[in-house]
């Protein structure tokens, strides 16, 4: 095995009912990364769908937990135990950022994101990279939990493919160039 291995996890909910939801942006970004490495997701004993490959010469494992978002920690911890990555990146939706704005960081709180809370609890650490994809806050009194389980708006969908591509570029830069260089390029 290579000395350096990055595990890139995309958060979402399994099944066709959730495919276009804001909460599934992590899955959508990982689908783009899988296309770049020329792989197809396959079931793995970790409880995630997995693709192994290389991004710009760096070995990566792409993982989409088969559990619901709020239970992502178990499959992520199993994948970490199995693959022993040197870097972990979690791609997820972020209510506190405008649509398609990207932010990357190492560690931090979960900001009410149950998928992150589950991962932090299962890994017993907050020290993993996060690639946050802005989905904006709902207007009015709409419950944020309901909002993230709705599909992107018509206007957002017109830009979505381009923004997913840009988020995949950011994930690739994070893995290949490091956090600071990726932040300088994408923030």
Automatic annotation (TrEMBL):
For this protein, the record's Gene3D superfamilies field holds: Peptidyl-tRNA hydrolase (3.40.50.1470)
Q: Which EC class, in a word?
A: hydrolase
Positions of the record's site feature: Discriminates between blocked and unblocked aminoacyl-tRNA: 13
What residues sit in the active site?
23 (proton acceptor)
Principal localisation: cytoplasm
Q: What is its EC number?
A: 3.1.1.29
Give the binding site residues for tRNA: 18, 68, 70, 114
Q: Where is this site: Stabilizes the basic form of H active site to accept a proton?
A: 93
Q: Any idea where this protein resides?
A: Cytoplasm
State one Pfam family annotation: Pept_tRNA_hydro
Single Gene Ontology MF annotation: hydrolase activity
Q: Provide the alphabetized UniProt keywords.
A: Cytoplasm, Hydrolase, RNA-binding, tRNA-binding
Assembly mode: Monomer.
**Family statement:** Belongs to the PTH family.
Entries under HAMAP family matching the protein: Pept_tRNA_hydro_bact
Q: What's this protein's function?
A: Catalyzes the release of premature peptidyl moieties from peptidyl-tRNA molecules trapped in stalled 50S ribosomal subunits, and thus maintains levels of free tRNAs and 50S ribosomes.
Record protein name field:
Peptidyl-tRNA hydrolase
| Taxonomic source organism | Lentzea pudingi
Tell me the lineage of the source organism.
Bacteria, Bacillati, Actinomycetota, Actinomycetes, Pseudonocardiales
